[in-house]
Amino acid sequence: MNNLGLIIRREFSTRVRKRSFIILTLLAPVLMAILLFLPAYLATLPGDEKLITILDESVLMDIRDKGTEEIRFRYLNPKDFDFETAKALAEGNGDYAFLHVPLSEGGDPDFVARNIRIFREGDLSIAVENHIERSLEKYLQKEKLKFEGVDPEIVARTKTNVKLRVINTKAGVEAENATLLKMGIGYVCAFAIYLFIFIYGSQVMRGVIEEKTNRIMELMISSIKPFELMMGKIIGIGALALLQFVIWIGLGALIFTLFSAIFIDPSLSAPAGAGTEQFNALQDSTSFEIYRSLQTVNWWQLLGSFIFYFLGGYLLYGALFAAIGSAVDKEADSQQFILPITIPLILSLLVIIRALDNPDGAIATWMSFIPLSSPLVMMARIPFGVPGWELLLSMVILAISFVFCVWIAAKIYRIGVLMYGKKPTFKELYRWTRYKN
Q1: CA gap 277, 289 in Å, rounded
Q2: pLDDT in tens, 89-130
Q3: Are residues 194 and 296 located together in one domain of the fold?
Q4: Do 89 and 16 share a structural domain?
């Protein structure tokens, strides 16, 4: 066990001092924050003003509709302009686009809808196209109601906006629904485990291949048991991954706090003496909705489960990657063995999309018990609430599978680290597992 501690410290200390590790650890949360928050910030910036000239020969649109801050409408009087003159005027003025609403035949709105055209030198912005289509649909609906003898004002007064307040009654406790938030948390947790398994599992494999190629392995095996060497490498690199993750969590929390202070209203509770209107306005605010949704998540269970599945998934796959590294001399030769390992991970990514939509479904439930997929699928389900027996059973199966995989990997590792110049087959790997000590 003393040798195991030495290997763990060696693997950890040699990698933690690398410049690439330090740079990635510090910059990754910043880059992630930029990817998350920059689009939201850019969306708040004012865009270029787009002037659209309109010749409405059917007098369909309301001349009082001037558009938006970015999209402005300029109406031409059909009595003063025909189509060609209006189009030439818009092009001569350098307007963003020219919209032509033709004269209705017999007052038929469907004829107008089929023949509305917009002209622009170049491609039309999707935002502009959607805005104009919505505006025209609104006016055409009014015209069709008039055409059918129905007063549009009566229809407008009967329109009612409905906002469902969804109450989650799971486990006999009523709580506000927070589906989107839980979907986001579940996906981020599952994808983080997937990312760390691939990054650090590959590091284990490459480390074994490098030491084997440099013949350092022969010297180390003479004084250290192969099992201790394999486990020392897996645990040492795993500790490095855990350290990096903890740092990312801390930096991420700091960045989120700064972002919240700048962009989110800090008044998440009603001030003393606030009236009913102020309290209702507070409850309807986006900040309050986010705050209320966060309260529905069992954060202690989420954190504890993440640490378990993070470590369990890494240790299980790390043992398999170590076995692969010991069986080959070059990283290029490892591809045939990596594929069977990566298939369950990729399949898990596909399953969590369904699990986020239906966390209690049969597929999500069964994949939560299979050890090669449970670290990802179960983490996607946990924010929604998982029965205690399912969580415990999944953890027990993962722990037993880890011990079994380490036992199998150790048998392959013991023989593979001293095999050179030969590319083993799956049949040979199976034969290695049957050799007695």
Answers
A1: 17
A2: 998 888 999 999 888 766 677 788 888 899 988 888 888 888
A3: yes
A4: no
